[in-house]
């Protein structure tokens, strides 16, 4: 199985990237492509730029990576109750090339934040919008209060939340084997 994983953040200290990396540690037997959103930085989307310059090569590259994936693991950062500007811009460009840019790929959709809602606003937005972009969201996971519930070496340290997370990983793996 080929896994495409990334955080919807361009921060060099992204807690969502840390959550993605931790999640990937549970898929060590798989072929993993871990993206850095910074490697897909594109000009700010505008209809004028699209008309005059066409589509950025990096948008095509990302769509090819999505096409070759068997599973997408994505953790969204939340800025002002929504997607980060960097992630939204990537979505804008990719959706102009292919409105169904998630290409029916199975997805584990996650979010985390320092606050107690764990990126719940962006999660709710994505759960409503991503299926319109042909995302096949198999499960979701939100980690609240990242700084209190996550350790760089141990991963999720809150017992109940860790059990919920591990249950979702087991269910996801079982579902993908069917």
From TrEMBL:
GO CC terms: cytosol
Pfam families: FMN_red
Molecular function GO terms recorded: FMN binding; oxidoreductase activity
InterPro entries on file: Flavoprotein-like_sf, FMN_Rdtase-like_dom, NAD(P)H-dep_reductase
Any coiled-coil regions, as ranges: none
Record-annotated NADPH-dependent FMN reductase-like domain positions: 1-139
Protein name: NAD(P)H-dependent FMN reductase
Organism of derivation: Pedobacter caeni
């Amino acid at each position: 199985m080929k896994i495409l994983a990334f955080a919807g953040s361009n921060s060099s200290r992204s807690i969502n990237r840390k959550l993605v990396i931790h999640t990937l540690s549970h898929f060590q037997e798989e072929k993993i492509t871990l993206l850095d959103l910074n490697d897909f930085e594109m000009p700010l989307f505008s209809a004028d730029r699209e008309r005059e310059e066409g589509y950025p090569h990096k948008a095509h590259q990302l769509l090819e990576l999505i096409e070759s994936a068997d599973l997408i693991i994505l953790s969204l950062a939340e800025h002002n109750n929504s997607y980060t500007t960097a992630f939204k811009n990537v979505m804008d460009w990719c959706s102009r090339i292919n409105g169904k840019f998630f290409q029916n790929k199975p997805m584990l959709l996650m979010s985390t934040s320092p606050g107690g809602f764990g990126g719940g606003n962006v999660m709710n937005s994505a759960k409503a919008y991503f299926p319109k972009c042909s995302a096949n969201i198999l499960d979701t996971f939100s980690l609240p209060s990242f700084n209190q519930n996550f350790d760089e070496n141990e991963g999720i340290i809150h017992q109940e939340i860790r059990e919920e997370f591990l249950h979702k990983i087991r269910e996801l793996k079982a579902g993908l084997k069917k």
